[in-house]
Amino acid sequence: MNIIIIIIIIILAGLGFFTQFQSQELQETMIPKMSNEFEKITIQNSKKKDDDRCIETPEGRKEIFSVSKDGYGLSIYYENSFYKSDKFYYKNGYIKNKSLSFNMGSPVGILYYFDKSGKLIKEENTDEGYGFKPLDIIAYCEKNKIDLPKGYHDSGYRARVLKQDFEGKKVWRISHQIAGDKIEEIILDSKTGKELQKKTVPFYNP
């Protein structure tokens, strides 16, 4: 074989590997980091934030703070990610549970639980039974031109990705707006990603 052709083949193969590596690296950077470490929210700061539902950090993240009779909630949105961090705290400010989730949807990965003293007591794999992974959902939505939201949006209907039960088995349910008054709901098998149902339902904006 001509030496020039061999060199060209090697270069093309290298470019293909590099492109694949870049794609994998990009996907990884889209997923925020979540650890099983203890953390505490400062009550004084929390009270200051109580009147400001959405806070923008110097890093460009948006944090949505909430207060309830049981404690505090904090959702952290990342500008270039389909995922957010959801954290809930006891009234003493100690972490209660935390996980990643789709921006408009269900938890993904590990959900960490802590007792009131700050001790890690449970790790729940929310992806158990889901052979069709969150990254597969993103690829499916891109292929089918479903616009998954990145970062925080304070208004308008956004595509939702939920883990649910359907006819006795685990499924993914994707809901997205296809017209001003229409929502398309798609149900995918949790293991294979096969479409089990697709229907259009009316959308009412109160």
Describe the structure.
This protein has 206 residues and is an alpha+beta fold. 21% of the residues lie in helices and 39% in strands. The protein is built from 3 helices and 11 strands. A 7-stranded antiparallel beta sheet has the order 1-2-3-4-5-6-7, with no helix packed on it. The longest helix has 27 residues, at 3-29.
Poorly predicted runs: 15-29
- Mean of residue pLDDT values: 83
Class derived from helix and strand content: alpha+beta
* Order of strands across the main sheet: 1-2-3-4-5-6-7
What kind of oligomer do you see?
single chain
What fraction, in percent, of the residue positions are helical?
10-25%
How many DSSP-defined strands?
Answer: 11
Using the alpha-carbon principal axes, give the shape.
globular
- How large is the share of residues in beta strands? 35-45%
Major beta sheet, specifics? 7 strands, antiparallel
The rounded Rg comes to: 21 Å
How widely separated are the two ends?
69 Å
Listing every helix as H and every strand as E from the N terminus to the C terminus, the arrangement reads HHEEEEEEEHEEEE
The number of distinct helices, counting runs of at least 4 residues, comes to 3
How would you describe this structure in keywords?
single chain; 206 residues; alpha+beta; 7-stranded antiparallel beta sheet; 4-stranded antiparallel beta sheet; 3 helices; 11 strands; globular
